[in-house]
């Protein structure tokens, strides 16, 4: 049976459909499995738009342009379901619950990926939300596969991460009860102690969600899919598509506009990035494999876990990412550049702090002062505070290298029929040309995130030349001042 045949007439339920992974998954399912039944997507009204309006706006984005051109009728297969992962029963009404009784496949990718969320918020979204969906799925008699999308960083205390569930950091039922009982401030006081000193609430609550899934493995056809850091697409539906600033995309954009000059990060760490379209492909092939092996799988077998990680297939260090970005961005700069694109990494926190004060805060003060003089709203100091808070939350990940075992992930390529490798395979991309990949990623950031032309204007290129001269002069002045101080100090010593 081919992969599209396996998905023929299947009814699919997707949470997190408006997220990065959810969007890529839905587009891939509709385009490559054209005979599937329906895709029900859980959505809530947002920013004055109803769920139907939000779904239509998503359908009209560039991501779905190829799908609209090749299969214009595919829109009719998307059905919006009103609900909220943070609510009991996911907030789904009785009429919609009845429609979902025929669901065959569940993709649970909804989660709060903010590292600075309050503990109570993260518990209700990531842990209780998973339990609520699992309870609903127990009532769906035709269910064949339930995919819980987790993260390879759900156990950050383990540096050699295997494709298995690790012992719990806390009791998930007690944790949910605490979030339902106590207010946000009280829980935040005990956050580090109760969370076993996890780096953030995201990894802690995703780890507990895996315990929920593991407990129901004998009652549901369920497994865990752990992507690492999801980045822009490598091939389809177009290279370089992204819808957020997470991971290296945000790092390169911040360096590219000149507001990020220093990072407290180890440049020699091998980073684990996986393109969004590879995640979408393997989410589909993992279900294909899981359904094909369902009859032969023993009920008391261990939970099937897939580490969707590629560092041991296509390694690249964080230092190499930054160098590729700096080189290309100076040739193809952003339109809103505030200073010369650049930035550097250091493992020394003292040096980073000095750089942050001189290169970040001083520049923010100067720019905001000039904006006030021209009666414009200052923004850079506020933005620098947000950058500082974001990088503080990411500190552990910037200084630590994990190794993810991925035998189950690699095996997904082997189950793809030979004539479908170009559509659903991924090992053909094993030797990624990272220079070309991040060039596409930067163009994608310009187009999809910053709403600029993928190619820079002549004015943007001219500004970078001016910034290059100004940067050289400023460095010369600073270094001269420092040398003068050192000279005076030495003279006094003599």
UniProtKB/TrEMBL annotation:
Cellular component, GO annotation: membrane; peroxisome
BP terms from Gene Ontology: long-chain fatty-acyl-CoA metabolic process
Keyword vocabulary terms for this entry: Lipid biosynthesis, Lipid metabolism, Membrane, NADP, Oxidoreductase, Transmembrane, Transmembrane helix
Catalytic activity: a long-chain fatty acyl-CoA + 2 NADPH + 2 H(+) = a long-chain primary fatty alcohol + 2 NADP(+) + CoA
Cellular localization per UniProt: Membrane
Residue span, Fatty acyl-CoA reductase C-terminal domain: 359-452
Keyword Transmembrane: yes
Pfam families: NAD_binding_4, Sterile
InterPro entries: FAR, FAR_C, FAR_NAD-bd, NAD(P)-bd_dom_sf
Task of the protein: Catalyzes the reduction of fatty acyl-CoA to fatty alcohols.
Protein name as it appears in the record: Fatty acyl-CoA reductase
Source organism: Drosophila simulans
